[in-house]
């Protein structure tokens, strides 16, 4: 039996999620990643991980679909036989002011960013070894004022922070820790077109890098973080607006 630890990264094919998956693989985890719209990126990431000596496989799973979330956990167990770390990175960003925000966008945001996060955690911890790790990827908008049109997104991320704080109590008897990373502006393809507008609001005068978020996630996944649970860790260069 292969005793190497296993990590499942929901939303692991680009940006922060891909960096986390690659980092965990480099530290010896066997990694499963979910994708919803870019199988080519999932395949490219798997190839990179395998070329570097790691193990990875990808599976399609829409985080708005409860059955798909459960299937992702089940397939990870079938593939690797265990689950030690769950990283819930999947999310959607739909912006708009309250005058124009549609019910469709509201429902879609809550379905993935809140309901999907809860369901992913629920499905994962039922199969997770005692002493496991759950890591959610929230946003600094949960604690910082963003900009007009971001209220629903910010609300969803604040809900995740509160969820994590309280789920820590549910999971503590099994020594499963759960923590929430709240990134600020990160240099990914999603922010490429607006980076110059954002940098002025960051005291460190630069965008964060996906690898910096991955480093924090890797620490939270490891043994050294065993006394931290229920925390939301904001990593945003001191972002102000």
Automatic annotation (TrEMBL):
UniProt domain Ketoreductase: residue ranges: 5-184
- Name of one Pfam family that matches: adh_short_C2
Question: Superkingdom of this entry's organism?
Answer: Bacteria
- Supply the SUPFAM superfamilies for this chain: NAD(P)-binding Rossmann-fold domains
UniProt lists the family membership as follows: Belongs to the short-chain dehydrogenases/reductases (SDR) family.
PANTHER family xref list? SHORT-CHAIN DEHYDROGENASE-RELATED, SHORT-CHAIN DEHYDROGENASES/REDUCTASES FAMILY MEMBER
Q: What is this protein called?
A: 3-oxoacyl-ACP reductase FabG
Question: What organism is listed for this UniProt entry?
Answer: Leclercia tamurae
Q: What is the lineage of its organism?
A: Bacteria, Pseudomonadati, Pseudomonadota, Gammaproteobacteria, Enterobacterales
């Amino acid at each position: 039996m292969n005793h190497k630890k296993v990590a499942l990264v929901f939303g692991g094919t680009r940006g922060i999620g891909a960096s986390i998956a690659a980092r965990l693989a480099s530290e010896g985890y066997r990694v499963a990643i979910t994708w919803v719209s870019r199988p080519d990126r999932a395949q490219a990431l798997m190839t990179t991980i395998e070329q570097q000596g790691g193990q990875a496989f990808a599976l399609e799973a829409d985080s708005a679909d409860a059955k798909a979330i459960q299937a992702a956990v089940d397939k990870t167990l079938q593939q690797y036989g265990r689950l030690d770390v769950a990283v819930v990175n999947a999310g959607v960003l739909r912006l708009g002011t309250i005058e124009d925000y549609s019910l469709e966008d509201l429902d879609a945001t809550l379905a993935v960013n809140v309901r999907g996060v809860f369901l992913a955690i629920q499905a994962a911890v039922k199969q997770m070894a005692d002493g496991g790790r759950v890591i959610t990827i929230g946003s600094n908008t949960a604690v910082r004022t963003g900009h007009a049109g971001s209220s629903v997104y910010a609300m969803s991320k604040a809900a995740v922070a509160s969820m994590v704080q309280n789920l820590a109590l549910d999971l503590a008897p099994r020594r499963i820790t759960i923590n929430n990373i709240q990134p600020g502006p990160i240099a990914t393809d999603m922010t490429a077109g607006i980076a110059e507008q954002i940098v002025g609001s960051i005291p460190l005068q630069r965008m964060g890098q996906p690898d910096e978020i991955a480093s924090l996630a890797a620490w939270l996944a490891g043994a050294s973080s065993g006394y931290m649970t229920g925390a939301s860790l904001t990593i945003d260069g001191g972002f102000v607006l």
